[in-house]
Design a protein that fits this description.
Elements (H helix, E strand, L loop, with lengths): L4 E4 L2 E4 L10 H5 L2 E11 L2 E5 L1 H14 L8 H14 L5 E9 L13 E8 L8 E9 L16 H13 L4 E5 L5 E4 L3 E6 L2 E5 L9 H12 L4 E4 L3 H5 L3 E6 L3 E8 L2 E2 L5 H14 L10 E3 L11
Parallel strand pairs: 7-8, 7-14, 11-12
Antiparallel strand pairs: 1-2, 1-6, 3-4, 3-5, 4-16, 5-6, 8-9, 10-11, 10-13, 13-14, 14-15
Keywords: Amino-acid biosynthesis, Aminotransferase, Branched-chain amino acid biosynthesis, Pyridoxal phosphate, Transferase
Catalytic activity: L-leucine + 2-oxoglutarate = 4-methyl-2-oxopentanoate + L-glutamate; L-valine + 2-oxoglutarate = 3-methyl-2-oxobutanoate + L-glutamate; L-isoleucine + 2-oxoglutarate = (S)-3-methyl-2-oxopentanoate + L-glutamate
Pfam family, one: Aminotran_4
Length: about 300
């Protein structure tokens, strides 16, 4: 996993020297936000997929937690490209992290510095086909925790569910919300296919509005199979023809079974969307090249919302 450098507050530092204080506020109270982004190998060299959208969401997440990111989106984009290039990647995972640093250790700690880092490393694509189990842990209640923010503290929910699934012999966990509706998996959005119709849980179920989820929806529309966002129940998973997951780290992944009930993996819809996704991220489909930011090309910053 270790690579050459990590970008920290404007400076590339050696991997082993990228340190934070043990009394950093985020370490004690989970006051951080993150993004997982990917650079893919294309015929024209490495390029970061939907970089602007990821960084805009990072800013939104920080605002929800009451933190101000001390770098604009275009500055973070340039730093991201610099870090990928400095580490010599052809393809990699990129972790953006914004957190409250060392200072006051009280709960509020509004005066603590906000620390920003960007790390990159090689990432292996998961094996094709995963086995899901429904977790006994429920998705965070969005009335208590802001599920619209991709924040570090609430990820304890996913950590517990993932550990439960792996210890039970499964690959991944499905999280239901307090009302029993399907929300998402521990680090991926979920899609259900039945009789050719594709659907995915709504954000109101506690699911993060994923950038890869949005990508799949757009690809599906272009393939003539629009996606519906709706309430999804556990029984919908059992009665599905296909189920698949998507996320930045995983891509589009078919589900082999849910709670021991076998599924086609991959089914025809999943296979078509996975192929379209790979063509888009590797720059093979010209319709989606605007989603790719070349690593060594000059960056043109777009307007902020």
């Amino acid at each position: 996993m270790e690579t050459g450098h990590i970008w920290m507050d404007g400076t590339l530092v050696p991997w082993g020297e990228a340190r934070v204080h043990v009394l950093s506020h985020a370490l004690h109270y989970g006051t951080g936000v993150l993004e997982g982004t990917r650079a893919f190998d294309t015929g024209a060299g490495p390029a970061v997929f939907r970089l602007g959208e990821h960084l805009e969401r990072l800013h939104r997440s920080a605002r929800i937690l009451g933190m101000r990111v001390p770098y604009e989106v275009d500055e973070l984009a340039a730093a991201t490209l610099e870090t990928v290039a400095a580490n010599g990647h052809r393809a990699c995972y990129i972790r953006h992290l914004v957190h409250r640093g060392y200072g006051e250790l009280g709960l509020a700690a509004r005066a603590n510095p906000v620390v920003v880092s960007i790390a990159t490393w090689e990432w292996e694509t998961p094996a094709a086909g995963v086995r899901l189990m429904t977790s006994s842990w429920r998705r965070n209640d969005q009335a208590a925790v802001p599920t619209a923010a991709k924040a570090t503290g609430p990820y304890l929910n996913s950590v517990l569910a993932k550990a439960e699934a792996v210890e039970a012999g499964y690959d991944e966990a499905v999280l239901l919300n307090a009302a029993g509706q399907v929300s998402e998996c521990t680090a991926a959005n979920l899609f259900v296919v039945r009789e050719g119709r594709v659907s995915t849980p709504q954000a109101s179920a506690g699911a993060l509005e994923g950038i890869t989820q949005d990508t799949v929806e757009r690809l599906a529309a272009d393939l003539g199979m629009p996606v519906t966002r709706r309430d999804v129940m556990r029984s919908d998973l059992y009665g599905a023809d296909e189920v698949f997951l998507c996320g930045t780290a995983a891509g589009v992944v078919p589900v082999r079974s849910v709670d021991g009930r076998d599924l086609a993996a991959p089914g025809p819809v999943t296979a078509a969307l996975a192929a379209a996704y790979l063509a888009a991220v590797h720059g093979r489909d010209p319709r989606y090249r605007h989603w790719l930011t070349p690593v060594r090309a000059p960056l043109v910053a777009g307007p902020r919302p």
